[in-house]
């Protein structure tokens, strides 16, 4: 019942705010969703609304400091996984284990890892998808067109450079709220 109510409310909010969305999920029950560009706190709000609107159950990772107090309890109930970036936590293996233990599992991550401009995307999403052999869904937000969604998906290939180019080609036309903060897809190798 809660899912239905959240779905209705989320659809209404998106419509009232003038946002349109598209959904193209792969056929399987397991995949990694990346959400980019990530240049504002509003990005999280809109992606959560979109996922609630579609009734998709997912987990996501966020900076541990947002999980304090009563808000933290709610965020964890919403699938949030607190990440303390000041310590090595091996998030890739933690998420891989979750994929391996469940029949259905969706993990959402903002690969830029911050709202500030970055030189490199965090490649954990890529290695998670590769280790558990699941597709990566390209989640996007584009403020000028007020559109967001999940568009194409792909399985990581043996050619990292080709996969990075695919990401660059897709996200090249997407603009965050603060385009100057966007760091295009590149990985430290």
3D structure, described in words:
The chain is α/β, with parallel strands linked by helices and 189 residues long. It has one domain (2-175). 37% of the residues lie in helices and 21% in strands. The protein is built from six helices and seven strands; from the N terminus they run αββαβαβαβαββα. The protein has helices at 2-16, 41-53, 69-77, 91-101, 124-132, 160-171; strands at 20-23, 30-36, 59-63, 80-83, 105-109, 136-142, 147-154. A seven-stranded mixed beta sheet has the order 1-7-6-2-5-3-4, sandwiched between helices. Helix 1 (2-16) packs across helix 2 (41-53) and helix 4 runs parallel beside helix 5. The longest helix has 15 residues, at 2-16. It is globular. The termini are far apart.
List keywords for this structure.
189 residues, seven-stranded mixed β-sheet, globular, 21% strand, single chain, 37% helix, 7 strands, alpha/beta
Mean pLDDT across every amino acid position: 88
Secondary-structure element pattern, one letter each:
HEEHEHEHEHEEH
The helix/strand class is: alpha/beta
Largest sheet: 7 strands, mixed
Strand order of the largest sheet: 1-7-6-2-5-3-4
The termini sit apart by 45 Å
């Amino acid at each position: 019942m809660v899912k239905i109510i959240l779905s209705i409310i989320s659809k209404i909010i998106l419509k009232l705010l003038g946002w349109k969305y598209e959904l193209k999920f792969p056929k399987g029950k397991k995949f990694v969703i990346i959400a980019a560009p990530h240049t504002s706190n509003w990005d999280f709000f809109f992606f959560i609304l979109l996922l609630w609107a579609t009734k998709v159950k997912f987990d996501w990772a966020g900076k541990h400091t947002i999980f304090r107090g009563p808000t933290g309890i709610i965020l964890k109930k919403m699938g949030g996984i607190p990440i303390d970036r000041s310590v090595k936590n091996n998030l890739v293996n933690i998420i891989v284990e979750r994929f391996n233990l469940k029949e259905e599992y969706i993990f959402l991550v903002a690969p830029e890892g911050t709202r500030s401009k970055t030189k490199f995307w965090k490649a954990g999403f890529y290695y998670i998808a590769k280790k558990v052999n699941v597709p990566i869904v390209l989640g996007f937000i584009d403020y000028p067109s007020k559109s967001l969604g999940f568009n194409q998906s792909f399985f990581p290939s043996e050619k990292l450079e080709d996969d990075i180019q695919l990401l660059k080609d897709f996200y090249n036309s997407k603009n965050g709220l603060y385009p100057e903060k966007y760091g295009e897809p590149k990985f430290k190798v």
